[in-house]
Specification:
Layout lengths: L21 E7 L2 H14 L3 E4 L5 E3 L3 E8 L4 E6 L3 E7 L4 H10 L18 H4 L2 E2 L2 E2 L4 E8 L5 E5 H4 L16 E11 L11 H7 L7 H15 L7 E5 L5 E3 H10 L5 E3 L5 E4 L1 H7 L6 E2 L2 E3 L6 E4 L5 H19 L8 E3 L1
Parallel strand pairs: 1-4, 2-4, 3-19
Antiparallel strand pairs: 5-6, 6-11, 7-8, 9-10, 9-11, 12-18, 13-15, 14-15, 16-17, 17-18
The structure holds flavin-adenine dinucleotide and uridine-diphosphate-2(N-acetylglucosaminyl) butyric acid.
Length: 341
Amino acid sequence: MDFWLKETSLKPYNTFGVEVSASSIALVREEGQFLRLLEHVRSSGRQLLILGGGSNVLLVRDWAGVVALNKIEGIHVVDEDSESVVVKVGSGHNWHRLVMWSVERGLGGIENLALIPGSVGAGPMQNIGAYGVELSETFVELEALSLKDGTKRIFGLADCGFGYRHSVFKAQEKGKWFIRSITLRLSKRPELRLDYGNLREEVQRLGVDRPGPAEVAQAVINIRRSKLPDPAVLGNAGSFFKNPEVPMKRAQELLTEYPSMPTYASQKPGFIKLAAGWLIEQCGLKGYRRGPCGVHERQALVLVNYGGATGRQILDLALHVQETVHRKFDIMLEPEVNIIA
Ligand code: FAD
Ligand code: EPU
């Protein structure tokens, strides 16, 4: 078949830069290829792991099955009116390239999500979010292929069960679908969302009279570059844990003890979101290093591979962070990264 790579190392295909291998790796550029690969996987009884950019996975051991690297690309305008443009995008398209395509046309909706690494198709998995905006806000639908028999299903907004870093694809539909494309509605009359952190100041610093989506994206890029390690330089998968959502009462108790503790509104009624990075830093773990891996020195929510760390070592570090935070705050951090064991 025309899609097998010669190599079997997954090191170039996960942003943690962990050295593990697969029994075989396929590069998939179109739907037909994916269906043929699926047929092969099913008839040979092997397991399939789908990877986009590998920027939200921790590979803990060699993968005995097949890995599909998704490169199904392309942006298609499927509808347009005076208010909006609806685009259907191949799931293997690079997410940041889609954001740049959108802002170059003055379209609004995803500019706050600039520079999130990885593929378009992984976006709905955890409902990617940053700087006060989530994918779900522009999402129309996605097209998915069943991993059981290749049949197609459309998931509308209500079917996806989006929440904070959550969707049905991390819950009851986990491991059942290949996301083939997603459809988003982008606005011709963008309403800028500048309330998160220092985003408004960063946009003002650009000195543009009437900032639009392109300036917001640029400001987000500037902030992200100053805070988050570039995986090309230092292996990481972004935030390792989700920000915990705790009952209002618990948040109040903590605020009495730590009045400067950052808090955020939660979509869950009666809950408040805390900053896991702050909790980890309070435990004295910011910059903590354990062999070849550690807690990033500028962003405690990011675990990093200084070179040569195994998935197991990074997982052990994550468990140590989890236990330490639990002991001090009685809060159990939940991984955001998909642990592939
Ligand atoms: P992968 O890591 O390849 O896959 C993630 C999971 O989705 C795996 O379980 C995989 O099997 C599955 N999957 C991937 N593609 C498909 C598909 N087409 N069909 C079915 N299953 C699929 N995330 C945020 O939400 N906000 C941020 O601000 C953010 N910042 C980050 C910063 C850095 C420096 C890094 C390294 C990561 C960051 N992330 C962030 C996490 C990550 O970029 C996102 O989760 C991204 O959507 C992952 O895309 P990917 O293609 O690399 O997914
Ligand atoms: N903080 C600390 N110490 C730290 C890190 C953060 O005290 O070491 C404090 C900050 O000072 C701030 C608060 O925690 O008051 C929040 O920090 P930040 O704005 O950097 O965001 P975050 O909660 O660490 C979340 C997302 C990121 C996203 C940013 C911006 C999660 C799990 N993470 O990080 O997403 O880019 O907000 O919206 O929700 C990712 O998912 O991989 C990711 C990077």
